[in-house]
Structures are given as C-alpha cells and as structure tokens.
Amino acid sequence: MKGEWWRQAVFYELYVPSFFDGNGDGVGDFKGALEKLDYLKELGIDGIWLTPFYPSPKVDNGYDISDYYGVDEEYGTMDDFQLFIKEAHDRGIKVVADLVLNHTSSEHPWFQESRSSKDHPKRDWYIWKDHPNNWESFFGVSAWELDEATNQYYYHAFAKEQVDLNWHNPEVREEMIHVMKFWLDQGLDGFRLDVINFLKVHPDMKDNPYDEETGEQIHLHDKDQEGILDVIRDLSAIVHQYPDKFMVGEVGSDELDVLTTYSGKDKLDVVFNFNLGSLESFNLPDMYKQLSDMEKGHSEEQIPTLFFGSHDMKRSLSRFGCGDRKKDLDRAKLIATLMLTAKGVPFIYYGEEIGMEDVTIHDIKEMKDVQGKTAYESAIREGKTEQEALRVANDKGRDASRSPMQWNAERYHGFSEKKPWIFPAANDTNVSSQESDPDSILSYYRTLIAIRKEWSSLHSGEYEEMGMSGQVLTYVKSHDSDRVLVLLNFSEKCLEVNLQNMISKESHLALSSKRSQLKFGNTIELLPYEAMIITL
C-alpha cells in the first residue's frame, strides 16, 4: 500500500511496557516487541501505534517526556528501536508513534532551565503566572502549581509533573518540528498526536465557567483555541513532505463539529472519535446513533476512526460484558466485526484479539496510573475509607486495561515478581491456548482481517444503506462493483431477517461467527449473537 495506505489499514495499539518482555526485567521492551512481529503479521496488522517510549520519569506512563530524542532504557536502546522499525517494514507493517507536543515532564531540562530564573531565555517556553485563575486540570485538581524558586505558578493541564509548553512562542514550535523530523528520519511512518487540541490557551487567561447542572468546569479558554488549526496545518505540511506518512490526532472533545475541524485536507489525516469508542456500556441504539452521526459528519476527506479500546479506557469486553464468558466472547466477535467492516480506519487495542478483560488493583501501592492515584488521594481528603477510596481509584484510574499481554497461562501473574498483576482467571484468555482453536476469538480476528483485505467494499467502501431493527444492526457497503451485506445480531434469540431480494446467484457467505455454511433465500435466520458477512 502506498500513498494514503492508512485508508485501508488495520492498526494495532502496542502499549510498549505491557506487550512483551524481551530481557526478563519485568517490563515490555523493543526486543520483546520484535519477537512478536510475526504474530502481528499473522494477525493481519498493517500499522502499529507505539505508545511513548522516550525517556521519562513515567509519572503518567511515559506521557511525561524528559528527552524527545532518546529511547527509555527500560525499553531498550536506539539500536533496538531502529531494528524493530526495520523488521516491521520488512514484514510490510508501518509504525507510527505517540508524540506529546502539549507538555513535557517537569524533569525535562527545558523546564529545569525555565524555572531557574524569570530572566532565563527558556522562561517563556512554558506558561507562568503571578496569580492563578480558576482553571482545573483534567485530573480534577488546580491546573496551577506554585514554584517556590521564583514564586510564580506554572500551568499544567494534566498532572503537575506534566508542564504545558507555550505554543505562542515560535521557538517552541521550531523545536518540536525538529523533534518530528528527527523521528521521521529514524524511519517512523507518522505520529499519533496526544491531546492535540490543548496546544494553545486563551492569551487573556479568563476564568472558565461552570456547568450549572453538573457543577463541572467548562473548559472554554484552555482548549480548542484560535490558532491551533494553523499549527496543525504547519505540522501536517512538514510531516507530509515525507512520502507515505500518517497523522492521527487525539482531540479531547465529544462534539462532532469540533472533531471534524481537525482532520481533512492540509490537516490531520484522521482524529479519534471517542463518542463511539468509549461508550461505558453496551447499548446498540447509542452505537447506531454514533455511526449515523459519524457518517453525516464526515466527507471524502474526513474518514472516521473505529475503536472500542485504548490505554485510556476500560477494556471493551469488560465494559460490554454481562459476566458470562461465553456470551461476552460472542458479543466481542460482533464488536470486532463492526470495528473491522464499518466505514473507517480501525484500531485494535492489544489484547482485544484474545478477549482480555480488566484487572482490579487491590492495593493502592500497586497502582501505577497517576489519574487513579489522584482520585484516591482526593477521596481520602473527602473522608472516604481506604477501601472506598480504592474503589474510586479503580473506577477513575486506567490501570485496568494496561496489564501485560497474556501470551500463555504461566504469565497470568505478570512478567515478574517485581511487577505483580492479578489477572481474571479465564483459562482461555491467552494466545497459546487460542492459537490452534478454530473457534477462538483470536482465530476469528485473523479470519475477519483476512476477509477485510480481500473485499474492497469492506476496507474502502461507502454505505449504500444502514439500519437497525431491535438488536440487529445491518449495513450494505460497496466499492466499484464489489458489494457486501453485514448482519450483526446482538440478541440472545434467533431472529429472522428479510433480505429484500438482495441475494443473487453470485452471493456467498464470506464469514459467520457461528457457522460455516448458509442456505440462501429472501429471508435468513440469524443465530443468537451471530455476525455475518455476505457478498452480494
């Protein structure tokens, strides 16, 4: 695939510290990821999204970068990184990396210089203020931290160790462009830009209003500000000077009209739409509405993204599950079919293909996520007991979906005693037990991705029609003379579907999650929790 290869691609989010430990120290690394490239190739992956691997104190699991030009020693060396890129490319797999342009670690030398004196040349690389306004961080505390060395407050949209850069300063822009070029020159195929709509704040720094009903702060002046799109156009022009590069943005907004302003011609190639991807529980009408809204809100230049898991949310099998492992896996196959056949660019979160579930942290000392820790501390201050605060931390935190990939049963308790994790005791939730099982969710993913590649209507098609009846979602997609019908029965019952004379002599069953053969007619009976793809 050349040019806009990403339009047909299937991406895989590889959470570096949790994917595979190649040197036995208890942390995932590039040597480990290299060992598993053949696994990803067999799965059918076209693109890997790497989470941050740069040197970092890891207050926020690497999203607090202390050196933009290196590889964190826990994950390996620059040679390990370059070998991983080469071997991925040799297998036809592109690699894009998370890049945090909004903020640096408070331990970054730039910030250490900035805080050393009000007159330091790098003082204006960050946002300083004598008296804080009312802005809250997105972790629920004040967004301002007093730095006693100069008796001024610095701004942080997230943790206090994640200090926001001042993108009104042209020197910051030029340095970050240099960073992007550096990694493109190392062989990266593009970037996933973290919280990209936070790059600028209102220069007047007015107080934010509050929602009268919820009491929550409305982030009116600290995101989606004037000038951000100009920055994105500049960055896009520079990245796309390199051939075959891809840019996806994380835009912190649930407003489709806002999301679509960030992608398209001369801007980001796509942005993540969390309205569909982060639904807290299974609700087919909500899914159908989001799919319909995405179709109305996008043009040929603005392609939707399709995902149901990431490092920032609970795992989809746990969110959408009912507690019955068999039924939950059946539903997971339906969700996979939707993600990989609907219109858009799909992103599989590591472990989804084997049905991994959330883990629960039983001791706050084991919690790694700053958001969970912050929620725990706030709950304790509010007078909650330690157990109540721990429940809040598990609810608000993001460790649940970041546990090590379960390659075999022996690794259920983590990579090593140094990094303990407790996994759900599902005997089939590992790669080795599913490899040779034709009915496993891993086998289903492999078959599904292969069929997606075979039929252009699945990876490049437009909707001819889409509808929902009860708990059945249907859509027809076409590309040139290629047409497919997708039927998804989310019900526990057998349901009859009228195909309205769509079936012809050339029609055949491309895939079913429940059977290998189908007798065609104007009506068919869908089995409980059955996903079906029929070529027309």
How are the elements arranged and paired?
Elements: E1 11-14, H1 16-19, H2 30-35, H3 37-43, E2 47-50, H4 78-90, E3 94-99, E4 103-105, H5 109-116, E5 128-129, E6 144-147, E7 152-155, E8 162-164, H6 170-185, E9 190-193, H7 228-239, E10 246-249, H8 256-259, E11 270-271, H9 274-277, H10 284-297, E12 305-306, H11 316-320, H12 325-341, E13 345-349, H13 370-381, H14 386-396, H15 431-434, H16 441-454, H17 456-460, E14 462-469, E15 472-479, E16 482-489, E17 495-498, E18 508-512, E19 523-526, E20 531-535
Parallel strand pairs: 1-2, 1-13, 2-3, 3-9, 9-10, 10-11, 12-13
Antiparallel strand pairs: 4-8, 5-7, 6-7, 14-15, 15-16, 16-20, 17-19, 18-20
Structural class: alpha/beta
- CATH architecture of the largest domain, by name, is Alpha-Beta Barrel
Fraction of residues in helices? 25-40%
Biggest β-sheet, characterized?
Answer: 8 strands, parallel
Q: Kindly state the mean pLDDT as a whole number?
A: 93
Give the strand order of the largest sheet, numbering strands 1, 2, ... along the chain.
11-10-9-3-2-1-13-12
Shape assignment: globular
Low-confidence stretches: 411-418
Query: Rounded to an integer, what's the Rg over CA atoms?
Result: 24 Å
Q: What is the CATH H-level superfamily of the largest domain?
A: Glycosidases
Instruction: Please count the helical segments.
Output: 17
The amount of beta strand, in percent, is 15-25%
Q: In CATH, what is the class of the largest domain?
A: Alpha Beta
Distance between the termini: 26 Å
The CATH topology of the largest domain turns out to be TIM Barrel
Number of domains: 4
Count the E strands.
20
Oligomeric composition of the shown chains: single chain
